[in-house]
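Appendix C: a fully annotated inverse folding record. The material below is reproduced so that readers can follow the format used throughout the book. The structure is listed first as tokens, followed by the designed sequence.
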């Protein structure tokens, strides 16, 4: 069993215990524990995460993908501006992109207005930001490989020819 296989198992289900992984891989629990501990220390494992469907608990969140065009800075390129952006609590994810814009920023807020305020008051005024385009998430179907709402098999609409 390779370290990568153990990491893939944890990525798919972070609730797996070391004992379960050992049983599934035929590896000793001690070896599994050491592999995971080393991966955590090396920041190969960055965080254990729970994916919540907030709509089911009545605590809706608004999400937006904000495209950001920036002018790279001498000696540091995109990194300095990206760092300023990812330090904001509202910025949940920041990616450097290829294509028509430079950064993709996933933003979370309680309302569309809250996200708009973040973009206009905090994000757009950053020196080096030359433009933003916001796309609001209307519905999450699948995230991190997980489907949010599955339809029951028996509830398919009949097609009449």
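Designed amino acids, in order:
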């Amino acid at each position: 069993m390779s370290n990568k296989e153990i990491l893939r198992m944890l990525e798919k289900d972070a609730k797996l215990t070391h004992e379960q992984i050992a049983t599934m891989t035929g590896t000793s629990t001690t070896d599994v524990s050491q592999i995971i501990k080393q991966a955590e220390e090396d920041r190969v494992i960055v965080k254990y995460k729970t994916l919540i469907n907030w709509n089911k608990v009545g605590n809706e969140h608004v999400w937006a993908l904000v495209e950001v065009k920036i002018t790279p800075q001498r000696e540091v390129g995109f990194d300095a501006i990206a760092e300023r952006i990812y330090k904001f609590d509202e910025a949940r994810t920041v990616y450097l992109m290829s294509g028509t814009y430079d950064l993709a920023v996933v933003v979370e807020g309680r309302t569309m207005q809250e996200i708009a305020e973040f973009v206009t008051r905090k994000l757009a005024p950053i020196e080096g930001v030359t433009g933003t385009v916001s796309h609001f998430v209307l519905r999450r179907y699948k995230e991190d490989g997980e489907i949010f709402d599955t339809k029951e098999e028996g509830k398919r609409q009949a097609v009449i020819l």
